[in-house]
Structures are given as structure tokens and as C-alpha cells.
Amino acid sequence: MIEAKNLSKRYGKRLAVDDISLLAPKGTITALLGPNGAGKSTLIGIMLGQIKPDEGEVFINGFSVQKQRRAALAEIGATFEAPGFHGELTRCEVLEFLSSLTRKVSASDIEDTADFVGLNEQIHDKVRTYSRGMRLRLALAQAILPRPSVVILDEPMEGLDPAGIRDARQIIKRMQTEFGATILLSSHLLHEVAELCDHVAIVCRGKLVLSSPNGGTAAQLEETYLSVVESE
Fold first, then answer.
1. Fewer CB under 10 Å: which end of the chain, C or N?
2. Are residues 96 and 157 in the same domain?
3. Is 224 in the same domain as 171?
4. Residue 138 sits in which domain range?
5. Do 59 and 115 fall into the same domain?
6. How many Cβ atoms sit within 10 Å of the Cβ of residue 168?
7. CB 27 within 8 Å of CB 197
């Protein structure tokens, strides 16, 4: 569902992404791990068509992001770390506006999606009154409202309290099981990765240094992660 082939991106003399090839099979949750500055954000930017690679290509459900950008991006929903929305808009107004940028959705679709993420009671509340956890729920809602086949989540649980992390975990898992979404999840929270993800990809210094099924505990994942990253 997500296939990156021989991606490279250089900023001046710095090679941010160095010949990375990565596959996320249909219906799986893949974790994208790595220390700050490893190249994860650049990689995600290339997948979303925001950054042009120097070499390589990304395919989303068979469509090339670089050659068939509109068709490829129609398959993707995404959230970003610390999602921002216009504070004077309500939940409905945000979802109506953002969905209009991709495809027309019905009022019932908006309500069903808000209910799915647990925002069904905040219909008239302005976004400026939302907590960090509620803003994440809104971000997840806009990502899945057009029912994309692929969802890319960049640090979705950053800054949440334990209850917010639990709720986000449950929503993300339901996105996989109920919608069949293929999910790429960037995170530093290894305990959550161990619970959620089917596959783990670790990036360090712009290189893909590990790509394997996730079959261990959080402690085992941490040991593997530290061992791989510290050896680079």
C-alpha cells in the first residue's frame, strides 16, 4: 500500500535521506522510528508530496506521488505533530472546510467521523477551547473523514497525558480494524509502538537501518532500537 523506492534527498552537503526503500503492506500499522534529525520528517514529507526527492519514487496504492500526485494524495490522510486549527471555528466548520479540499462529504459523514473519534458533544465549541487531546481527536477526524486507504501520523501522541495516549491508541487501532486503513506512525513512544504496530522501521543518519515485523515486548523493542541506533 505504501512503497518507497530508493529515496534520496540532500540539503546542501547534508544527505537527509540516503537511498531508503520501505514497504508498508495493506492493512498494517508500521512504526517509523529514529532519533531527532534521522530523516523521518523528510521521508514523510516526500511521501506526502511536500518535498521533492533528488532520487527515487513513492507509490501510494499503486499511484506515484511524484508522477501522479493528485491521484496518490487522494489516497492519503495525515496528521502532524501539534496540529493547529483556526481557534474561532467549531468542530463542524473545521471538518467541513478541510474535507472540501479533498472531496465533498455529507453532514452525516462528518457526524459519524466526529462520533468515531469521540467529539460528538463538541459540535458548537470553538477549537480554541479544546485541550491537546481534543485537538488530536479533531486531527484524526480530518485525516480519516475522506476515508483514505493510507493514514500517515507524525508524532500523534506527543504531549498527551496517559488518558489521552490511551484514547489515541484505541482510535488508531480502530482505524486499522474498522476502516482497513494502512497506517504509518512516527513516534518516540516505544511502549505505544510495541502495543500498536505490526512492523517497525528504524531510520538513523538518513539510512534505513532496520525493517522487521514487531513481535516483541516494549523492553525488547527498546533494546533493539538503542542497539541499532547507537551502533550507527
1. C
2. no
3. yes
4. 83-147
5. no
6. 22
7. no
In this structure, the answer to whether residues 68 and 155 fall within a common structural domain is yes
User: How far is 126 from 111, CA to CA, in rounded Å?
Assistant: 16
> Residues 199, 203, 208, 210: what is their CA dihedral angle, to the nearest 10 degrees?
-50
In angstroms, rounded to a whole number, what is the distance separating the alpha carbons of residues 175 and 141?
A: 10
- Which amino acid belongs to residue 116? F
Q: 68 exposed, middle or buried (CB, 10 Å; 0-12, 13-18, 19+)?
A: middle
pLDDT tens per residue, the chain (232 residues)? 899 999 999 999 899 999 999 999 999 999 999 999 899 999 999 999 999 999 999 999 999 999 999 999 989 999 886 667 787 888 878 887 777 777 777 888 888 988 999 888 777 788 888 888 888 888 898 899 888 999 999 999 888 889 999 999 999 999 999 999 999 999 999 999 999 999 999 999 999 999 999 978 889 999 999 998 888 7
Q: Residue 36 and residue 75: Cα distance in Å, rounded?
A: 28
Answer yes or no: do 42 and 115 share one domain: no
Nearest to 41, CA basis, from 150, 168, 187: 187
What are the contacts of 192-198 at 24+ separation with CB within 8 A? Answer: 192/157, 192/165, 193/31, 193/33, 193/218, 193/221, 194/218, 194/220, 194/221, 195/169, 196/29, 196/31, 196/169, 196/172, 197/29, 197/30, 197/31, 198/28, 198/29, 198/30
Q: Quote the pTM value.
A: 0.89
171 with 225, same domain? yes
